[in-house]
Sequence to fold (1269 residues):
Amino acid sequence: MRLILWFAFIYFISAQTLVEGNYVENFKGVNYILSSNFKTWQDAENDCIARGGHLTSVHSQEENNFLNTLINTRTTPSNTIWYGGHRNANRDFVWSDGTTFSWTAWNGGEPNGHFTENCLHRLSNGLWNDLRCGQTFQYICKLDKVATTTTTTTTTTTTAPSLPHIVNDTCQPHFLDASSTIWQRSTGFSIEPEASGVRCDRQIKTGWYRFKSPAGSIMPEQCPNINSCGTTLPIWLNGSHPTEVNVSTSVPVCVVYPGNCCAHKYNIDIKRCQDEVQGEDYFVYNLPATPGCPMSYCIGNETRCPDGERSPNGFSPGCTNEFPKLKGKPEVTVGSHGNRIRFTCDFEPEQIKNNAKYKVSWYTRTSDGNAELVKTETLHGNQTKSFLQNTDGQKFCLQKNFFCEVSSVFPDSEDISDTKRSDDFFAGIKISPTTIDLAENDAPKELKFETTVPITCEPLFPDCAVDLEVAQTQNNGVLSFCKISFKKGPAGQVKTMEVVAKRDFIDDGDKSMKIKFHIPLTLFVPDWKCHAEFPDVTVHTKDVTTANCYSNGDPHITTFDNRRFDHYRVGDYVYTKSGARLFEVHVRTFVCASVSCNCGVAAREGDDVMVVDMCRDNVPRARFASTVEPQPGTRINRSPDGKVFEFSFPSGASVRFEARRWFGNTYYANIVVKLPSDDYKNTSGLCGIWDSSSSNDLTSKEGQKFQGGGQAPLGFTESWKLTPGSSLFYHRGGPQKCLAERFKTYCFCSENAQNNQVINCTTNAIVDRPKYIVGNNQYQELNFPGAEHCGKRRRRRRDVETQKTLILPDDGEDAVYFYDPIQPNKTLPSFPTPNGITEVQAIFNCDKALRESESGKVCLELVPDLDIDGIIESCVEDTKILDDIEVATSSAVGVMKDACEEVTLRNITLWKTDDTTGQLQPPKAVAEILCPNECSGNGYCANATCVCDEGYLSADCSIHEDDPPVLVKVAFNGLCDIRQKDCVRTRVIGRNFINSESLACQTKALKFTTDHSIDEEFNGEATIQSSELLSFAELSCDLPDVPVDIVFSSTQKGIPVGGFDIRLSNNGENFSNESSQFVVYDSKCLQCNATTKDCQWKEDSCRVNNYCFGKGDAHPLDWCKVCSGENAFEPRYDNLAPVFRPTEPIKVFKDQEMSFVIPVFDPEQKRMKYELIEPPSPPLGMEISNGGVLTWTPKEENKTFTVWIKVTDICGNSSYSTYDFEVVNCPCQAFNGAECQRGDNGTISCVCLLDVPEKIVPLAKSVNKKHLQ
Fold:
């Protein structure tokens, strides 16, 4: 029964290990089989042997590439594969087919499992790793000859070839087994009874075999134990090997069963052969497949040396522990020596022996992971450090992995050694990570650069540095800088660089770019003359949408998620606000017919606030409401016709304000807000919650959701209304500080054809908003008038006369006014209108105006699906309310043009390749129709520039040449308080202005009488001053000088009021008939009439030499007097007397000069007068200086003196204090006549006055105060 069970087990195993079909590829005449099975390394090797080969060996980069391609195309790329590498008895890796292990592709730090990881497998990245042999993976067999193949429709399969026969020469074996696991056929190798993956020769091909094993290469002639020879049922030679050469002998073999050394017997042929080259005999065996499994032929009878012992071949006989042993692995470290980088291979023997020898080999890794020998040296005895340094020519290059290998031997047994390898050490600049994923709304991510080696310099150039230049292949991201410098210093220097995705406001999909690094030739950092290439960093950027919110007409709002509603209320409202950052936009509306219209917008990002407001006098007035200089990238731009204003922010957000004529000289505004992806899912206000869903757009401030169309629910709109005084229109700047983080500078780092860096760094580099810029349609920047900003100051216009720029006037408090209009309460009109316009007529005219306008024809041809239905709907509603088809259709065409511009700029599929640059550009056809206001019907649009009909002028052809400029008035009632504003330029309101370099103002100085009224008879000299267009209704006039000076002078009489009479001209020659007066005054002592411009003294003021001082101000020549009003000064009553600080008695030394600073201060920080007073009389010779320093040389010792001191401030207030001075003996005199010197902390130091022998000097140490008691 026992025998039956064994045979059942044998045939069950045999049935489970049949050869299956697998992928076969041919490379240079050799077939490689990629098995689909998963096996242990030994089972995979056995299968390859059965197929007529071995697990594959690799001998070149070309062969490695072939194998990688085979694996990546025939398996899941993440699969790992067994190769034929394994450790031999000396712990070195060899190939199982016996070929030389000459080419490697180890992964970094591998191989590292010296005692437990003995087999080689390929990682998913194509590099090699050592691993425990018992794990199961797919594998590749490399055959000894080309196999025959059969092809099916799905895979190529192979049948195992028969082993090659050498005709008439059986001493040339069909197969030479010299694999790394051949030793496991030895009788000295046993397995556990329940072991898996046991050896079985059931599938070998019948043929002649030769075995070469370090455990013995012939079959044993003695019965082995069960579970030996790496199998359960070993097979041994039950006879003797032949003694004659080249004579084949049949000898029986036996299969060992439990309790039976020869349970099954059959014969095999054996032949004795001679290797004349090697001078040795060997045997070949004609072996059939075993009758079952697990059965295997035994070869050899030696055992593997136990751990801690070595022999020449790793097996008995001769195992010994008599060799120099090493503790752990060697360690590679780095430092500097003689101004050069030096690596150290440090190893530790278990015991220092004088006759020990250590062979140290230094290697670097090539780019494909192979080991490349750099240096070998032999150390002796107690030498346990090997050095590697670039001192005698170039020995190594940086930016590579280094490792060392140490073999330790005794001279009389150099074939017995302990070999250990260090971990890999990366030497260079480590960059991490190598892949970055960034969405366009992500915060910047960091690249880290760390030196793992010291930076050393040539002796004559101690300030050298290694400069790592940075370049990028695409512009979809920007970097914080384009060069990283590492100065002389130890390893471990760390630098970081930010990478941020560019906000491009284009739907152009996801992109990738490479960041490349390069060190230019550096002569002064010699070790960096040679280095491997730096790895690229790949940056993947994800395209994220942007959005716009529109408010047009009276007004119709389209939210970020494209929901439309009407807003007919007036006041200040939150248009949109971001919850992700400090950004918000407020709008101001006024009563317009029976509803409302936009008349102002204010926007804030960080601590920058900009306003355009025409609600007060129908003049669009752009200004910076913030009182700090705007961060770079924050701009106000004005269109050529002065009707469009754009706010731009560093984040990419923008606000557009377009003034449009309603009737006569009355205007309303269309407003557009564009947001970057940073604000997605973070907005609130009238523009809704931007989250790609319009269902929640009508969400109130309190979170209540409203529904409906047409006029928006009051519960929604009024929740976003701001109380008077709380909106951004009232912003006054506050303390001069930064309220939010300033935008950083980022760079686009590229390279030209000569590999030279091309660097462009700006604060708004993260924004790349496309624009149409053609013809003369250029916007002009309106610059900040100037103020303190985070420690910086921008120069005023007076300081930069040659600067060609438009600087806004300083409006001061005049720009802010109270606004709380009454809500419209008229009944909403209906069709037909009072002028008889029907709804059908309105629809027809609105549709016709859009489709037949020049811009409509172009836009609808380019974008047939442009959504104009909503624009028509708003146009019809405007016609009904305004009862004016022309105004409604003009506004609608403008809205359509804005929408067309936005769509064609955003949708990159509509872009065309420019013939000149070869770059993609937005369609020129749209650019050419972007003329302002459709040229007012008085011209045509060509290349985005209005070509006016004869007789018409200006950017939009709205002014007839016979219409001279009209001056209405100087803004803000023509008054400028020098205490509130700089008054170097003023706004002048009018009409019929033509934007050109010829704009000019004529100024004539005004003369004021002694009672501060204007002398009407005085006719001052006319001067021509430069002028700039601020808007279609306002100019900026520079003034020749500021006629009022507030800086007091005792010799130059002050002028508290002055001014100019101003006229305007479009050409610098013909000036307006009208003039207006601009009066500058000092509000400290004058108040002026806004109508007559006459001024009079204030009662609560004073004058000194005609300079103004307010009540409570100090007299400029006598600080102790203050202005009490009525031009009178009185004594200052809030002045405080000087304050003394108490001290302990002061110890002084006989015959040594004392210097003591009186501890007193004046609360008002004014100068003080010091006096010694009596009684009692001060000590003889004591004096006090004007600066409050007492000096005295005591002549008596062991005596205390009390001194009274009086200190008086400039206003006569005095304080008194006493100080005690105790004269004591100086203990330092005992040290060769040294002097005592008092320290600030109360200690006394001895100072030697004479040349004293060096051995005495240490005696003159500090003496504590207690030594003087």
Notes: Residues 547-738+776-787 form one domain. The first strand starts at residue 23 and ends at 27. The radius of gyration is 48 Å. The chain has nine helices and 86 strands.
